Amino acid sequence: MNEIVLNQPSSCFRETPFGPVVVLWSTHLGRPKIIRVVLSRPGVSSRKFVHNRVSGLTPSSCNEVDLIADRIAAFLTGENISFSLDIARLDLCPAFQQKVLRAEHGIPRGKVSTYRRIAGHLGDANAARAVGTALANNPFPIIIPCHRAIRSDHTLGGYQGGLEMKRALLEMEGIMFDSNGRVVTDEMFY
Known about the structure:
The protein is an alpha/beta fold. The chain is 31% helix and 19% strand. It folds into 2 domains: 4-87, Double Stranded RNA Binding Domain, CATH 3.30.160; 93-183, Winged helix-like DNA-binding domain superfamily/Winged helix DNA-binding domain (Arc Repressor Mutant, subunit A). It has helices spanning 46-53, 63-75, 95-105, 115-121, 128-136, 163-172, and strands spanning 4-5, 10-14, 21-28, 31-39, 54-55, 58-59, 113-114, 149-150, 176-177, 183-184. The chain has a 4-stranded mixed beta sheet. The chain is globular and about 45 Å long.
């Protein structure tokens, strides 16, 4: 197991219908910034994951981080909430991943796009697999709603919180599925 090393990290927990969510943060240039949002996934609580993989972690929070954590929890109950990227340490991500995350952040609630369409939007329709990899390693799920990216055949693809969570989030946003579990839409974003 690789250990995650952060500079003076702190953590903030919220219980949600999908299990606990951990918000890892630190101060950067005098302001609190989110380093990572850790979702629970089938068989692995985010609390256990963080305990096993993050060294030097201090449980603490501040008003700005509490607000983000509360908004993440509200989003996971179905509330229509969008997030500013200003709170996230995107600068910790490689340049290509930053482009993918910004594109994904632009997909509005109730819409989906495919990995291939996002790649095309970024200038290389053949980079669908690289887009999928960038989203699979999204350190800011929910803040950057990577659940809104699906495969070209309209199946879900992967998700850090598991496919049940991905489908539930999309359904909360009004996305419909057919009897085979494929997204039903005539309109893709991008």
